[in-house]
Automatic annotation (TrEMBL):
The keyword Zinc-finger belongs to this UniProt entry's keyword annotation: no
UniProt protein name: hexokinase
UniProt keyword Magnesium, yes or no: no
Biological processes annotated in GO: glucose metabolic process; glycolytic process; intracellular glucose homeostasis
Taxonomic lineage of the native organism: Eukaryota, Metazoa, Chordata, Craniata, Vertebrata
Similarity remark: Belongs to the hexokinase family.
Region (Disordered): 1-30
Feature: compositional bias, Low complexity: 1-18
Length: 929
């Protein structure tokens, strides 16, 4: 065994030199050399409309002979020059710049009479752009097949997921190890990253020769040998004993189900060790390492050399997202949208896909570009019919293609006339290296790629990854992701409620409901269970014209509602309530309201009429009658003085008197939940629950009057305004609250109050997300730990952002756009994480809401002595209506928590306005004989 090799320095820990490609020994794995070409551009993703500018960097290993000279540039229209155009632009063996083309002319024609046999042979090897375009399309088809769940197993281009979802971002830090299994040796690497943007990675490596008989021995012997290499290497470099993540480069076809989980499908390249196929090779290596008591070495990832190439070119500037390797064979990998990789559940972000494209064409897809020479090469190979694409591209074969071409020309007497050509009969007479020296590969690759994918601008970055820094970077990224995932999980864990948590919330809600209904316990209950004196839902016979007021939502509105046989007609006007009025005196507030009513009546020509008025007043009130409601407390940003403890209907009447506005007849004051229930009840008689999830949250339902201890009378039912937003104000939900919830609560004008509401409703969800994001930045989990001043601004992260960010199929670029408006420079991973945070917060909100509703429907079912209850919930609120998943999450969880209730949800159209009028109408129906 040789001693540890350190570019340009002696093996001592202190004297470790920064990584440099100097001083390499010649014997590195064969993969990092040779030739290659062919690329594809990224197609604009359908999920990302408007993303015309497809810029990508491609790492290329090696250089190549290629079959095309410099091509004419792209034509102005961005389309490919036709076969004829190519012919006319270079008519007689000269290109635009007058260079001799020989017969390396773009596009071949088989029967040009003046062609020499040599020209004809070369034209055979020079497919037209149209043909290449067709090959590109077939490659895309094959790639799609590989990505699709149904066709993945049969695909020629397997598109194997690598579970690498990220490129280096420069924050990677610490010591790590890589061990690479190669044809005849094992290479070990030790890398130290300083978290300095990967400016100066420090690297040591050593190559251990492998006994030749090992390839056909037992799997145990092989893995023991690899573990011993690790042991020896660590000993020699005096590695410390702290946890050391290890990446395992294992260049065989594996079924990977996680970063650190991969079953060997089958050996190749001369390996045939027993008892490995079908087993998890990560586990096998870890077991062998553990046998040597190297417990601090943890195999965290199985890697592919292609991914290493991509990573090695991925720092400094923008990330490199495609790699092209053409060693003896050829392969590529690229970052694909995760949702396209159907064999993996993950649908967020991107994942590196190892195309394994060497087998492209094994199903005949390359039929029309294969030449007689390709067929000869294939037939003489050890695996005829297989890896057809590789055999046209890989370095192992290029020399052979040339040999067969020359041989056939010699046989036709077109070359070497009179000379002995017996030397051409021997396999490998031409070295690929000799072929390579003829052409400038990179330039040709770039220009043909440009012609075939004019929508994409690709930068080719030759990879100089001769010492394995790339795979080390993959390991570093894997390590960073593992650590980050762990920290993210820790941070979000308190926000993820278990089924048991939700059952407990449901039980607590039930308990608080009972307490709120009880005459003696009412005062101590956090859920107030306020009687509304609404005892009937609409029956459809209600008629008449009504005025309605809606105060306590986002807007203050005045409406006129006509309830007629044909349906309900409404006209309304929105009025602003300035914050100074919301938080000024009660007199000013109610004066303002009366002025708005008068303005509305003038505009609607209603000054002469005295219409019954329903007042939707969406704050907690102790109702003493249908038209008598004592304000218990302000919520939702209101704090007008002199109102709490007063009958708001009287305050309104007083203001009308001050304004000498006599034509005001208030018949009912209702809560918006009640309005919503009534409005939906007009269309669906089963609607006996009202739910609001907007700025705040609340619910009401029809309770048996005999259960309402706070009101006299036992007959029939009464609608109870639960005021469930305050659930938990007595401390019963304290263990559900997270530090983020407490931070949000502390900054509100009603700290400690409306605790349930602050977990659920629109006024708070954005704030919760903002606090979580701040914590993540603080822990360096987001935005590379770079703080944003704007993100520190209260309420800057609106609840509408949750809806947008969580929209299915929304391209991550759009998430980045939202974050950019907050002066946050978000990477793709950042966007994925922000989305996860939003999902976690909105899911919790929906599930808590479901737990509350479950308590309500179960109580109603029991009240009525039913085994099954079918009931409808009338719902209002922009969060419920606009969030892409809230309603579904709510309904799913409710079904789960209350399986004996079939609950239908009916969205209310303007419940507050219509509902207030209907309460007034129902009241008039009852009082009129
Ligand atoms: P209110 O509850 O005040 O009567 P809404 O039902 O319209 O009014 O709710 C308004 C609240 O809904 C806003 O404060 C905001 O938090 C939230 N919201 C507004 N738009 C959206 C949206 N697109 N997605 C989620 N929440 C939203
Ligand atoms: Mg509302």
């Amino acid at each position: 065994m040789s001693s540890p090799r350190r570019p340009g320095s002696q093996p001592s820990r202190g004297g470790r030199a920064p990584w440099s490609p100097r001083g390499e020994r010649g014997r590195l794995p064969p993969v990092s050399r040779c030739v290659g070409m062919v690329m594809w551009g990224q197609q604009p993703s359908p999920a990302a409309p408007g993303l015309e500018d497809n810029l990508c960097a491609i790492a290329v290993v090696g250089r190549s002979c290629a079959l095309y000279p410099r091509l004419p540039g792209r034509d102005g229209g961005g389309t490919l020059p036709s076969h004829d155009a190519a012919q006319t632009s270079a008519p007689c063996g000269r290109d635009a710049e007058g260079r001799a083309l020989g017969s390396f002319q773009l596009g071949h024609q088989d029967n040009i009479p003046s062609c020499t046999p040599v020209q004809r042979a070369l034209m055979l090897l020079t497919p037209s752009l149209e043909k290449l375009q067709a090959v590109k399309c077939r490659m895309l088809e094959a790639m799609d097949k590989g990505l699709s769940r149904q066709t993945h197993a049969q695909a020629t281009v397997r598109m194997l997921p690598t579970f690498i979802c990220s490129t280096p971002d420069g924050t990677e830090k610490g010591d790590l190890m890589v061990v690479e299994l190669c044809q005849s040796h094992v290479r070990t690497l030790f890398v130290t990253l300083l978290g300095d943007g990967n400016q100066s990675p420090q690297l040591m490596y050593k190559i251990f020769d492998m006994p030749a008989d090992m390839l056909q021995g037992t799997g145990e012997a092989l893995f023991d040998f690899i573990a011993q290499c690790v042991h020896k290497f660590l000993e020699e470099i005096g590695s410390p004993q702290h946890r050391l993540p290890l990446g395992f480069v294992f260049p065989f076809s594996c079924r990977q189900t996680g970063l650190g989980k991969a079953e060997l499908i089958s050996w190749s390249k001369g390996f045939q060790c027993s008892d490995v196929e079908g087993k998890d090779v990560v586990q096998l290596l870890q077991a062998a390492i553990n046998k040597l008591e190297l417990y601090h070495v943890q195999v965290i990832a199985l890697l592919n050399d292609t991914v290493g190439t991509m990573m090695a070119s991925s720092w400094g500037g923008k990330p490199c997202e495609i790699a092209l390797v053409t060693g003896t064979g050829t392969n590529s990998c690229f970052m694909a949208e995760a949702e396209l990789v159907e064999v993996v559940e993950e649908s967020n972000g991107r994942m590196c896909v190892n195309s394994e494209w060497g087998c492209f064409g094994d199903d005949g897809a390359l039929g029309d570009v294969l030449t007689p020479y390709d067929h000869r090469v294939d037939q003489e190979s050890s695996n005829p019919g297989e890896r057809r694409f590789e055999k046209m591209v890989g370095g192992l074969y290029l020399g052979e293609i040339v040999r067969h071409a020359v041989l056939m020309l010699a046989t036709e007497q077109a070359l070497f006339v009179g000379a002995s050509t017996s030397v051409l009969g021997a396999k490998d007479a031409f070295k690929t290296q000799q072929v390579l020296e003829i052409m400038e590969f990179g330039e040709i690759l770039q220009s043909v790629a440009g012609l075939l994918a004019p929508e994409c601008t690709a930068t080719l970055v030759p990879s100089a990854d001769t010492n394995g820094l790339g795979v080390a970077m993959v390991t570093a990224v894997a390590q960073r992701l593992l650590t980050q995932r762990h920290e993210v999980e820790q941070l979000l864990a308190p926000l993820r409620l278990s089924r048991a948590d939700l059952e407990r919330v449901q039980a607590l809600m039930r308990q608080e409901m009972e307490r709120g209904l009880g005459r003696d316990s009412n005062a101590d209950a956090s859920v107030r269970m306020l009687p509304t004196y609404v005892c009937n839902t609409p029956d459809g016979t209600e008629r008449g014209d009504f005025l309605a007021l809606d105060l306590g939502g986002t807007n203050f509105r005045v409406l006129v509602v006509r309830v007629m046989q044909e349906g309900i007609h409404m006209a309304s006007e929105i009025y602003v309530v300035p914050t100074s009025v919301m938080q000024g005196t009660g007199e000013a507030l109610f004066d303002h309201i009366v002025e708005c009513i008068m303005d509305f009546q003038r505009k609607q020509n209603l000054m002469e009429q005295v219409l019954p008025l329903g007042f939707t007043f969406s704050f907690p009130c102790q109702q003493l009658g249908l038209d008598k409601a004592v304000l218990l407390t302000w919520t939702k940003g209101f704090s007008a003085s002199g109102c709490v403890g007063q009958d708001v209907v009287q305050l309104l009447r007083d203001a009308a008197q001050r304004k000498q506005h006599v034509a005001l007849k208030v018949v009912a004051v209702v809560n918006d939940t009640v309005g919503t229930m009534m409005a939906c009840g007009y269309d669906d008689p089963k609607c006996e629950i009202g739910l609001i999830v907007g700025t705040g949250t609340n619910a009401c339902y029809m309770e048996e009057r005999k259960n309402v201890g706070t009101v006299e009378g036992d007959e029939g039912r009464m609608c109870i305004n639960m005021e469930w937003g305050a659930f938990g104000d007595n401390g019963c939900l304290d263990d559900i609250f997270t530090t983020f919830d407490r931070m949000v609560d502390e900054k509100t004008i009603n700290a400690g109050k409306q605790r349930f509401e602050k977990l659920i409703s629109g006024m708070y969800l954005g704030e919760i997300v903002r606090h979580i994001l701040l914590a993540m930045v603080d822990k360096q989990l987001l935005f590379r730990g770079k703080p944003s001043l704007k993100l520190q601004t209260r309420d800057i992260f609106q609840t509408t952002f949750l809806s947008t960010i969580e929209t299915d199929g929304l391209a991550l670029q759009q998430v980045q756009g939202i974050l950019r408006d907050l002066e946050l420079d978000a990477s793709f991973e950042d966007s994925v994480l922000v989305r996860e945070v939003c999902q976690t917060v909105s899911l919790r909100a929906a599930q808590l809401c479901a737990a509350g509703l479950a308590a309500v429907v179960e109580k109603m079912r029991e009240n009525r002595g039913l085994a099954q209850l079918a009931i409808t919930v009338g719902v209002d609120g922009t969060l419920y209506k606009m969030h892409p998943h809230f309603s579904q999450n709510l309904q799913q969880m409710l079904q789960d928590l209350a399986p004996n209730c079939a609950v239908t949800f009916l969205q209310s159209e303007d419940g507050s306005g219509k509902g207030a009028a209907l309460v007034a109408a129902v009241a008039c129906r009852e009082t009129s004989p």
